[in-house]
Structure formats: C-alpha cells, structure tokens
Amino acid sequence: MANAQTQFESFHSTILLDYDTSQVLRDRRETLLKDLKNNISDDAPAYEYFTQGSYALHTGVHPEGGNPDMDIGILFDCSPDDYPDPLKLKKYVYDALTREGRTVNIKNPCVTVTYLKNGEADHHIDLAVYCSNAADQTQLAWGRTSTQCEDRSWKSSEAQKLTDVITNRFSGDDRTQFRRCIRALKRWRDLKVGHKNTPSIGLSVAAYNWFAPRYDATDGKPRDLTTLTDFVNAMLNHWIGSRLYVHLPVAPYSDLFEGMTDAQMLDLKDRLEVLRDVLKDAAAQPDTHEACKALRKQFGDDFPVPEKTDTTKQASAGVSTSGRSA
Amino acid sequence: MTELEQKFVILVENALKNLGAEITSFESKQGRPSWCISISRGGTTWQLLLRPRGWNVFELPSIYWRTAFPVWGWPHTSAAGDICVSDREGVEYAPDDVAGVLAWLLDEALRMLESNHKLTAHDRNELFADELEGYLQNCGAIAVPMEVMLDPERTLYAEVELVKKANMNLVSPAVRRLNHGTLKSEKCLQQRLSILDVSIHQLPALNKEWDTTWWDLFLNGLTPDQRTVATFPKSRGLLLRVSNGYGHALVLLYWGLHPSRKHKTYFVQRRDRDYLLRRTGGKSASRHVVVVGCGSIGSRVAEQLTLAGIEKLTLIDSDTFSADNLGRHILGRQAISKLKVNELASFLKDRLPDVEIEQKASDVQTLLGQNFFPTADAIVLATGNSVVERAIARKAFEEGWQGLLVSTSVEAVGLGGHSIAIKPGTPGCLDCLYMDPDTQLMTASMRTGLIAEGQRVTRQLTGCGAFTPYSSIDATRTALLAAEHVLSNIPSYSRWVGDDTLAKAEGILPSQAYDALRAGRIPTNIPPSTFAQPGCPCCGA
What we know:
The structure holds two protein chains of two kinds.
Chain A: H1 5-15, H2 23-39, E1 47-52, H3 54-57, E2 69-76, H4 87-97, E3 103-106, E4 111-117, E5 120-132, E6 138-142, E7 153-156, H5 159-167, H6 172-192, H7 200-210, H8 224-237, E8 239-240, E9 243-244, H9 262-284, H10 288-299, E10 324-325
Parallel strand pairs in A: 2-5
Antiparallel strand pairs in A: 1-2, 3-4, 4-5, 5-6, 6-7, 8-9
Chain B: H1 3-18, E1 22-29, E2 32-41, E3 44-51, E4 62-65, H2 98-118, H3 121-130, H4 132-139, E5 142-146, E6 156-164, E7 171-179, E8 189-198, E9 209-211, H5 212-220, H6 224-230, E10 237-244, E11 247-254, E12 262-270, H7 273-280, E13 285-292, H8 296-307, E14 310-316, H9 340-351, E15 356-360, H10 364-367, H11 372-375, E16 378-381, H12 386-399, E17 404-411, E18 416-422, H13 472-488, E19 492-497, H14 501-506, H15 512-518, E20 525-526, H16 528-531
Parallel strand pairs in B: 5-12, 8-10, 13-14, 13-16, 14-15, 16-17
Antiparallel strand pairs in B: 1-2, 2-3, 3-4, 6-7, 6-8, 9-12, 10-11, 11-12, 17-18, 18-19, 19-20
Helix pairs in contact in B: 1-2, 8-13
C-alpha cells in the first residue's frame, strides 16, 4: 500500500511560501512598516502591527501564476467611536505608504500595496486597519473612498484571536502535518477550483474543525495521504443540503463560504469527491510510482513522481548501527 | 510505662469496657501488653486474652481463647488458643482507630467461637483437618520440605541427617527432606517411610512430639489394614495423608532406627512444582520453549517462563558468563567463567523443581538443522543480533515451523525495548520491519528502532570491550513483554518506551518512532497485519 509520504513532504517543500523563506516579501514588509512609522500623520493615533492570514498561520503556498500576498494588521489605539468614519484611519495608512514606484489602493477590507514587475503585479501586501471597542473586540475598518459615508463601517473581526486559535489547535508533529495538509489542499484548490470563491481561511478553519493527524502505527512517521483522505471525507460528510458551512471560530462567527454560489458549492463538492477517490485509490495502489502519478493529476506538476521501483533487483540496503542488544 | 504506652492502655481499656468486656487482669511482658477479659454474648461467657503486638494496633492484635490446653480439633484456633480471625492479608483500617479495631476483632473472634460451638464434634473436626498443617506448625512441629509431588504408589524416603549434640557423643536424627528415591544431600541417609491414608477422626490430639502412649492410642483407632501399613517393620516413619477440603494434610511421624521416649512430629512443606504454581494462580503448561541467547533478556525470559509453568525449556548460548554481566544479568558471581546455559539451567531448576531443561552450549546457526526448532511451541530470539534472528525467522516461515517466534531486544540508555511475536503462516515478520513501505525495498535498519539512525551508541570503559549501555530494569521490562508473548501465544509486536534523560545526557537522538510512541500518537502494541508488507520476501504478505 503506497503512502507517498516522501513525495508529500517534497511537494510541501516546493509549494511552501513562508515568511522565513521569502526574502523579497520580508524585505518589502519591513520597508512598508518603516515607511508607515516614519511618514504617518502626527494626527494618527498610536498603533501596533501584527502578521495575519496565511503567513501568521504558516499555511502560505506559492500561488499558481504568481502575485503572492502578505497580510498585515494595523491596530490603532483608539475606539470606533473616536473615528465614526473608518476611512480616516485607512487614509493615514494610505498617505504614509504612497510613494513613487508603488501602487497603493484602498479596498473595502484593507489598504493594498501592489508591487509591479514589468508592468504586471508581482506580489502585494494587504494592510487591514483595526481598532478595539470597549469590549476589547477588534473592529475592522470597512469601506473605500468611493463608498458612501453611511456605508463605511467598523466590522467585528478578531484576526489576532483567530490566528491564536488556529495555530494553537495542534502542536509539535501534529501541527506540522496540519499545516502541510492545508497547504496541499490550498494548492489543489488553486488548480481545481480557483482561489477567489473558496477562500483559504475557509479551508484552514475546515481543517481546524475536522483535521485529525495520522501516523504510521508501526514506525510513527506521518501519513499525509491518510490524513488528507480522512479530512476530505470529513468535509464531504459535513455537507448540509447543497452547502458546506464553515463558521469562523471567533467573532463575527460568519460562514466563510457564504460568498460561494450554489453552483460553485456543487462544483467544489464534485471536485472534492474526485479528490477523495483519487486519494483512496492511491492508498490502495501497491506501487508508489503509480500512486504519485494519480496524485499529480490532483495536486499539479509540483507533486513529484518517483522512478518506478524494481523490487526484483537486488539493491544493497547498506549497513547501520542499531543500538539494540539483548 | 512511657506516656504513649499509658495512653494506649487507657484507649484499649476504655474500648474494652465500652464493648462490654470485663478486664480481669493486665500485664506487660517483653514489650507486649496483654489483657485477660471475659465477655458475654448469646448467653455464653467467653474467657479471652487480648495481646497487641506492641503499644499500638498497626498490626492486628492477637486474641486467644482461654480454655483447656492444648486446644485440638477447633477450626481457626491454635493449640495455644490463638483465634485466627484474619489471615492478616489484605486487611485495612485506620491505625488510630483502636476502638474500631478492637470492636471488629472481638466481634470476629466471638462469631468464630460461637459458630464452632454450634457444630457437632465431627463437623468441627472435618473443618479442623483443613488447617492441620498450620496447627502443627504453630505447635512447633518441624517443617520438612518435599520438592516432588507425593506419589502414594512410589516408595517414600526420608533424608535423615544424624546431628551430633553439642558437647555430647550422642547423635540425634533430623529429617531434612522427603523424596521418592533421589537423595540430594551427601550428609544424609535414605530411610524408608510408609504412607497411610487416615481421617482426622482417627487422629488423637497431636503435638510437636508424640510418645508410645499416643502411638498406642493412634493404632487403636486404625483398621487392621491400616495398622499393617503403620507398623511395617522396614519403615522408619509414617507419612499420614489426612484427607481434607484441599486434598490432604501431610504429617510425618518419624521414629528412626533407635527407640526413643519421644518422637518428633513433622509437617510437610510442599515445594513441588504443581503446588508452587498453584500458589501463583498459574498452572503447568506442557509446552516446549527454545530460548536462543541467554543474556540479560534471554535469561529473564527463561526465568519467567519457568515460574509461569512452562514444562520444557531448551537454552542455547555458546557464551561463558563474564563478570561484566553482573550488573544486569540474573546470574551471580558463582557463574563467572562458566557456560551461561549450564549456570542458568541450575538456577532455574533451583527456582522451580521438575522443570525440564535442555542445555545447548553452541552457536545457534550450527543447531538450526535440529528437529526441535520446527516442533517447539515457541522460540525466543534474544541474541542481540538482528541479522541472525531474521535469518532464523526466514527459515521458520519457509519451512512452516509450528511455534511462535519472539524476537526481543532492548534499546540503549533506557529508551525502550521490543518484543516481536510472529508466526509462520501469518503475514507480518521481522523482514517486514526492514522494508520501506513506499518503495518495498529492504532497509539496513529496523524502521521501528527507537534511536535515530547513524549514531554510535556503544560505549567503552576499558578501551577494549564495547557494550551497549542499558540497565537491569530495561532488560527486565523487555523480558516481561517477551515472556507474555510466549504465554499468550498470540502474534503481536509490543514495545515499551522509557524517558530520554540519559539519552540526552549521552547526546543520543531518539527516532521518530520513539517520539510518536512517547507522545502516545501510535500504540505500543500492534498486530502483525499492521506492519506486514505486501512485497516481503519472507512472509509474502
């Protein structure tokens, strides 16, 4: 029975996009934060910043087609009552960061800084603006310049708490496998479903709910193929009617897939069923080469396919020291 | 009396009074207080003696029935009147609750006396027979061991040592052991004994000694046939089999060669295999187990299997015992420079008589052709050489040996141990643990090893003689797993994992398997089907 664990780990190393491994994003983030510190208006309240999204959760993947993003939270030391128009705080950020060679836009949930390369978006950094209400609940500044004043608002959004909740769900080897499987599923989503309508955070929270680490009962090595199969099965088992509901575990507890149409939901379900079947078939496949060929069709060309093993050939297993005695 | 002793006396006397007992006297002898009391219950007044073991009730006090001595024929009551209200095993109470303990003790003692008094003398005697050996022991009768099960059809002998009395030219005979023909001590003479079945009702009150008056009384109570056996001229003593609820009480009346005014009474201390096994709750198992490798683990496996009742063991090891082994082997100094198999066999026979042990002071590979391997009920592989053990396992699978194979080994520095029980014909073998599940290719190291690959773990203390550091406890824990596998006869892989304190101190890195086991992510016991590999060249899983 194939496990393809070596291949899953190799695949993970290839698709992994992490703060520690992306020097360019790390440098640009530092530059942005430095600019914010140096250029922000004296009228703006004090702030602190934090990493959020996939970087904070350690679930980032190199997006297919480039333009990776990074999410930063800017938490101002004020209350929503101090700034009934949340755009005012977003403009402080916008003004501090705007300079030649950068494209800065105010979007509904954030201020986006896009870096271009040869006229094309190379990558971008989203800065979400927050403050805390009297109940110490973080509120997101929502709205853009074109938004009518009455539609601009503060929305409950506990990004920091969400990061804590998800990162503390598992520890040690369980957490490593948790992150590896989310990344694999995100890459599958990018290839098979498309990024826009199946948000990454929805997949991460689904994993928070239903992922269970799996290890080889004999040697204790992780078994990503088994855990992914179980996880995909769990997602399918939680379909209610025509929809999968994945609610945020923090305020505002909204359904993370609410933006998906029923047609998109059906498409997601169909594709998850195909994925589940492929994972199951791969596990039953005695030849790892054949199993990986099938898995590559789901996870893309970054998923390695090993050479076909010739078990009939006598290969030297070498000599090792065991440390066992009697 | 000290203040504490006075306080205890007050506590006891208050408690006795509250229980309705009348204290007739008190005395303190040899650091033990005692109270004579009388207490009425159910229309009878009982004269008792309460005798704590010290000035507290940390141990249950003794309670005696003060009546005509010696007491004979009363269940749970010694010749001196000591009432056995409890066998003192498994009794629990608050040590400060003197009043509570005395209330319970008196109640139990009275309940027993009353219950015995309600019985007919015949029924009381029947119950008394169950405790005859204990009664005689309390009287001061001498224990004589018997290491084989008594067979009434075989001739019984007493091993008699003639003991010279100090400063006198007189010798007196002492029975050292009973046997059915095998004299153990060179200092002893073999003297023939008769065996006689009697009922407790035929036995006059017996004590640690008996004389001609007692003997005549005894003979009078026998049938003519019994009398013939009892007076058989060639016999130097008579072993009485007194039937009781547990079979028989065994009492030896020994008179020897020379007439004497008084003769000693012996009670038989059973040391036969069946009796000792029954004491463990186990029973004899007619199984043949081969133990390959008599090192720290193999020797302990052999010991546990012997004590568990395995009837036949074959021990294989060509090594001699070295002083370096003393720290973790079950053998001691007397075994140094001697063959391990011989020394271990002696040790085991001493632990449990009648176990059949075969010693093979040879390399296992030279013995593989012998026919006891395929027919053994179990083969324990405790060689510390996984290559040899895998080769044996392959041969076993290929030839379809009938028994369980148990490969057992201990990891260095207390990280853990393994017992892998496999059975020819059942998928899952030693080679399966040396296969990469993904590639189905053989690997050099066992994938369940508890130490990360590529580390040197052997140590030197003298510059010559590498050894793997592990303790006696590590060996014992591992051996227990292997012994349990043999006894259960079920294929399964069991491992234990210890803490890594010593490993850290020694700079030894545990493996992923160790981490997973230690964290409880994977089970310590798995069936062979869990690790069986489809492409295994040995078990063809």
